[in-house]
Amino acid sequence: GFVNGEDLSVLAAVPTATTEASTDSNVGSYPITVSAGNDDNYDINTSDGTLTITQTNLTATAVDKVKTYGEENPTLEVIYSGFKNEDDKTALTTAPSPSTTATSTSAAGEYPISLSTGSDDNYTISNVPGTLTVNKATLSASAPNQSREYGEPNPTLSVEVTGFVNGEDLSVLATAPTATTEASTASNVGSYPITVSAGNDDNY
User: What is the DSSP letter of 200?
Assistant: First the structure.
């Protein structure tokens, strides 16, 4: 509305715009109020505006975890990226909650850690799932020492296995450790190693 090629610099008092919104203000609409300003040559008409505060993005990530077969699940955790104004998860209306289908009896392998849907008026929450890795448990297989007299058959060789979890025993193994020796009925007096094969299993 200026005339004669004039601009704001000619006004005795330039109109200014203010709002009550601050960095701490919640999502919503806030009036932008324009002061009238004044000048001898201009009648200044004002028109207020609106400051709209929209949601900001927040990322919730499930922390990857590791445990051993047979153990209880570790405590599942969530880390966040994108909080404003020194907010933390306590500021959220509903914080994402982590969960997994894995239990103490779940086989060795990887299991997803999923997050429930969180919500808040000030944040758009994006979830990033994690992984719970279940490692094999360790078994110890040892052959007890044996003895016999020269010329006799070897005694029955056995293997003692310790470290089973979930109340399991040798019957669950895909291949149980076995004990063998090179000694025979013709072997001379002396000491001969009893060798234990490793055996194998998906969980041990």
Answer: B
Nearest to 68 by CA among 114, 160, 2, 133: 133
Of 123, 121, 134, 74, whose CA–CA distance to 99 is shortest? 74
- pLDDT tens digits for range 84-111: 999 999 999 999 999 999 999 999 999 9
Cα–Cα distance for residue pair 30/34, rounded to 1 Å: 13
In angstroms, the first-to-last Cα distance of the chain is: 84
What's 47-115 look like in SS3?
CCEEEEECCEEEEEEECCEEEECCCCCCCCCEEEECCCCCCCHHHCCECCCEEECCCCCCCCEEEEEEE
Nearest to 36 by CA among 45, 24, 48, 27: 45
Instruction: Say how far apart CA 47 and CA 42 lie, in whole Å.
Output: 16
Neighbours of 119 (CB within 10 A): 13
Render pLDDT for 189-198 as a digit per residue (tens, 0 to 9).
999 999 999 8
Q: Could you read off the pLDDT of 52-82 as tens digits, one per residue? A: 999 999 999 999 999 999 999 999 999 999 9
Note the Cα 7 to chain centre separation in Å.
Answer: 58
Map tokens 């203010």 to a residue.
Answer: 18
